[in-house]
Design brief:
Layout (H helix, E strand, L loop, with lengths): L7 H24 L4 H6 L15 H15 L13 H5 L6 H4 L21 H13 L2
Length: about 140
Amino acid sequence: AVVSTQSTGEVLKARQQEKKAVMEKVKKIRKGKTEAEEVDNFEINEEPETKQRPLSIKEMNRKRKAKDSKYGFGGKKKRAKTNTQESYKDVSSFSSRIHSKPKRSAKNDKRMAGKPQRPGKNRRAQMKGSKGKKK
């Protein structure tokens, strides 16, 4: 058995102090208040800061033109299908032959005339009742 020279309490205190020191260094590095020498000695996998510079107006316009040529200019979206005064008055696409057909129904449709109409609920109940009485 290995005999430890330090008691477990002393080891825990040493670990806590070390952890506290590491956390303070991390805080300083985050705030940018450390000197370059201290940062070199302290190893942290810190991601390099990537600050994008704001685009100039010319670059924004160039980017906008490229997207417009690829996808088309946006234009109005919401009220695109509402009638305007001109579209309301325009009747060139109206055809009385197409737009004035009478509504189809089972009574006046030739295709539906061959099928006998189903009797109503009362009529079916009467027919059912009369069949039962024939017994």
